[in-house]
Design brief:
This protein is mainly beta. Strands 1, 4, 7, 8 and 9 form a 5-stranded mixed beta sheet that branches. The protein has a 4-stranded antiparallel beta sheet with strand order 3-2-5-6, with no helix packed on it. β5 and β6 form a beta hairpin. The longest helix has 14 residues. The protein starts with a helix and ends with a strand. It binds fe (iii) ion (FE). Fe (iii) ion binds next to β5.
């Protein structure tokens, strides 16, 4: 009898964990309870392993960028000449910035939309431009890169303001292609730039610029044929 009482006492103490509150099991697969030695091991809060976070989500919120709600007037983005300096097979990247690069920092951001003003997820965008001195890298891929719009049809590009080169106002070249659609080739312009009477400039391709202190934020929405 005494043996049974001792056994019952030991069983009760073990079940109660000796008075300590046990850690509840985590509900997020792969996430371990936080410990003092691994404070930085917590994964991002958004999404789950089964639902990938759309490209750009972290960037937009981190930079405090809220895209204006798209408005469309039924016209598609004007097509313009590719010019002589396009290079195919660019690296996939949202940032064209590299160590030692000079010039005014610039973020270009916006939506890729169809003719009904609906966002087009996963549209391909390919950007290329001159550097701050107006010079293109025609041997490599400096200031060249492609990306895909995120699940909400948003894109962003980190770069520098391009310089003028003879005969041209400042501009950024771009190609945009909806999944399964045709390629739009065009150029983007700066409201403050000089020499806008270069024969190619078009006011419908002006970006809307905000000075954010350390960088310029430029909005532009592409409207393409989503069919
Ligand atoms: Fe050019």
């Amino acid at each position: 009898m005494k043996f049974l009482l001792v056994f019952a006492l030991l069983f009760t103490l073990t079940a109660c964990g000796g008075g300590e509150t046990p850690l509840p099991p985590t509900s997020i697969p792969g996430l371990q309870p936080a410990s003092a030695t691994s404070p930085a091991s917590t994964p991002p809060p958004a999404g789950t392993p089964e639902t990938p976070v759309p490209v750009g989500d972290d960037f937009f919120s981190r930079m405090g960028i809220e895209l204006p709600a798209p408005t469309c007037n039924g016209t598609q983005t004007l097509s313009q000449t590719e010019g002589p300096y396009y290079t195919a097979n660019t690296p996939k990247r949202n940032s064209l910035l590299e160590p030692g690069m000079t010039g005014q920092s610039l973020i270009v951001a916006g939506f890729v939309l169809d003719q009904n003003c609906q966002p087009i997820p996963n549209a391909w965008l390919d950007f290329w431009q001159a550097d701050a001195d107006g010079i293109y890298d025609n041997q490599g891929y400096i200031l060249r890169g492609h990306q895909f719009a995120d699940g909400q049809g948003r894109f962003y590009l980190e770069t520098v303001v391009p310089g003028q080169y003879p005969g041209r106002t400042e501009h950024i070249h771009v190609k945009v292609q909806p999944p399964g659609g045709s390629v739009l080739t065009s150029q983007l312009y700066f409201p403050s730039s000089a020499n806008q009477s270069d024969g190619i400039f078009d006011a419908s391709l002006l970006m809307q610029i905000e000075d954010r202190g350390g960088f310029l934020l430029a909005f532009f929405n592409f409207v393409v044929n989503g069919n």
